[in-house]
Specification:
The chain is built from 13 helices and 26 strands. The protein is α+β, with helices and mostly antiparallel strands and 516 residues long. It has three domains: 233 residues, 3-Layer(bba) Sandwich (FAD/NAD(P)-binding domain); 113 residues, Alpha-Beta Plaits, CATH 3.30.70.2450; 88 residues, no CATH class. Strands 1, 2, 8, 9, 10, 11, 17 and 18 form an eight-stranded mixed β-sheet that branches. An eight-stranded mixed β-sheet has the order 6-5-13-14-15-12-16-19, sandwiched between helices. Strands 24-23-22-25-26 form a five-stranded antiparallel β-sheet. Helix 2 packs across helix 3. It is globular, with a radius of gyration of 24 Å. The model has no long low-confidence stretch (mean pLDDT 91). Bound molecules: flavin-adenine dinucleotide. Flavin-adenine dinucleotide binds next to helix 1, strand 9, strand 16 and helix 7.
Length: 516
């Protein structure tokens, strides 16, 4: 049966993995009409990405889905690192210096649960995924994007949208249709994964990593009692070889590398994959954008992939929503800043995870010996432990070279720098600085007289004067300074007064939409 019809929407999202679901949820929340499609029958049941990091939880807080996600996951309290025969080093993940985040932990949650929370949130916002619908073709002109979709029973449909986002994973059809290159490099390493129950009485919220002569193996706790994710590097694998990932194989692997009987049973999911990395040459071609795995693929070390995809979509959606209220030149600046900010972030992440993977999987005998000898010392250092907290949690991520951020902090003004996350100090018992922000638009803090804030709806509100010292300290704002904060809780800049800020045209354009 063939049928053709045409309709207009603001946005079409191709792919309903975590990135696409985030984009669709944010479109609905910010008042854009959206169609989201996925060629699968229904939501994925694979547990793939297991950790949601602190910055992603903060993003989810702005989306209104953090409580749902937190309830479905479990915090991951400690990682015990075993190097050869040395005594294990216990890294207390809850005890790290997390600073001022509300989410000072790694949240263990299988990807199908994260996707369930996002899809349920989308439905609560009045949206729905069109499953069993795939992208056939897409093209664009100056004014719109046209896509052809093939739905259930082969029904073909044309759709016109203001914008489209390809969230269609590593093999992205959107990316190919745009002719955007993504050079993939093989890291020439294979990993196996298994979600497995154990007869061992391992502490429920603690993970283990063994770095021995046979290779690296990890056991990471999952929210379900007694269930662990086993992750193992397979250094001896011959190309093309497939492992039979059954209980006996996993028991043998743990016995050989960790020296105990795992008692593997009730295998929930297994996978084996070769590591690749790559970055799309561009994230934007006119009205079409790429996000998530469609834009970057890399090693799973550090659990950054899904987190980065969710943050890509979040970064883009408020810019799309804002662009509707801006003059064309300012709108272009904001839309281009998506690539400037998120591609640079992914580039650093692809390089960083690639380097860490190469060290951890090195087949050079002396590298292994060195790591086993120095590992207990390295794992105890504050430097490494800090990396596991704020750095892996993406809280220290700073956007640079973005056209919509203040180029240089004004003389004499210190942290937080433009592009960094707004600090989140406690102001009163249940109130933090992030709670003062406009949930959908920019917020301007003014310090001429007692502190006030201007939100995107044009409301000017006095803040509790008792908060002034905390606010001034967190924002490093002197005198009559003003601080502009974006919807994604990034600092745009800190200026000595409003007139100074108005000289920066991207901020001026935003202030115009706020009626300032
Ligand atoms: C084994 C494994 C373990 C991982 N562990 C972690 C981890 O611990 N932490 C972490 O952060 N990341 C991890 N990742 C990475 C993480 O799973 C991905 O980064 C994440 O799924 C990317 O989300 P996405 O929405 O961008 O893409 P995907 O999840 O790939 O979703 C893309 C969607 O697009 C749909 N689609 C594709 N083509 C079309 C088309 N033509 N038309 C319509 N729909 C289409 C697909 O059906 C799919 O649903 C892991 C990945 C794997 C494989």
């Amino acid at each position: 049966m063939m049928e053709r019809r045409e309709q207009d929407v603001d946005l079409i999202v191709i792919g309903a993995g975590p990135t696409g679901l985030t984009a669709a949820c944010e479109a609905r929340r910010l008042g854009l009409s959206v169609v989201i499609i996925d060629r699968k029958e229904h939501r994925s049941t694979f547990s793939k990405a297991l950790v949601v990091h602190a910055r992603t939880m903060e993003v989810m807080e702005t989306m209104g889905v953090s409580e749902r996600v937190r309830a479905a996951g479990a915090s991951f309290d400690a990682l015990n690192a075993h190097f050869g025969s040395s005594e294990a080093v216990r890294m207390d993940l809850r005890g790290l210096d997390w600073g001022d985040t509300r989410y000072p932990y790694w949240l263990s949650i299988p990807q199908y649960e994260t996707e369930r929370c996002l899809e349920e949130h989308l439905i609560a916002l009045g949206g729905a995924v069109r499953w069993r619908t795939s992208l056939e073709s897409l093209e664009q002109d100056q004014d719109s994007v046209s896509v052809t979709l093939r739905g259930p029973n082969g029904v073909v449909e044309s759709l016109r949208a203001q914008w489209a986002i390809g969230c269609d994973g590593g093999g992205s059809a959107t990316r190919r249709a745009l002719g955007v290159a993504m050079e993939r490099e093989s890291l020439e390493e294979t990993f196996v994964l298994a979600d497995v129950h154990t007869t061992q009485a391992l502490a429920e919220a603690e993970g283990h990593a063994w770095y021995g002569e046979g290779g690296l193996v990890l056991l990471v706790p999952m929210p379900e009692a007694g269930l662990f994710r086993l992750i193992a590097h397979m250094p001896e694998r011959v190309e093309g070889e497939r492992f039979t990932l059954d209980e006996a194989f996993l028991d043998g692997l743990i016995l050989e590398r960790a020296g105990f009987e795992l008692g593997a049973h009730e295998l929930a999911w297994t996978s084996q994959f070769d590591l690749h990395q790559g970055l799309a040459e561009r994230y934007r071609v006119g009205r079409i954008f790429l996000a998530g795995d469609a834009a970057h693929v890399h090693s799973p070390v550090g659990g950054q992939g899904m987190n980065t995809g969710i943050q890509d979509a979040h970064n883009l959606l408020w810019k799309l929503a804002l662009s509707r209220d801006l003059e064309p030149a300012a709108a272009e600046l904001y839309l281009d800043s998506y690539q400037q900010e998120r591609r640079a972030t992914a580039k650093a992440m692809v390089q960083g995870t690639g380097r860490a993977t190469r060290v951890l999987t090195s087949k050079q005998h002396f590298v292994g010996m060195l790591l086993r000898a120095l590992g207990p010392y390295l794992a105890s250092t504050q430097l490494l432990q800090e990396q596991l907290g704020r750095a892996v949690g993406m809280l220290d991520l700073v956007y640079q070279d973005s056209a919509v951020l203040q180029e240089m902090p004004a003389v004499g003004l210190g942290q937080p720098s433009p592009g960094s996350r707004l600090p989140n100090p406690v102001l009163a018992e249940a109130t933090r600085l992030h709670d003062l922000l406009d949930p959908k638009g920019h917020t301007l803090f003014l310090f001429d007289g007692s502190p006030r804030k201007l939100t995107a709806d044009g409301q000017l509100q006095r803040l509790d004067p008792r908060w002034e010292p905390i606010l001034r300290d967190a924002l490093a704002v002197p005198g009559n300074g003003v601080v502009l904060v974006r919807p994604d809780r990034c600092v745009v800049g800190c200026w000595s007064d409003l007139a100074d800020l108005e000289r920066f045209s991207p901020a001026r354009a935003v202030l115009d939409t706020m009626g300032a």
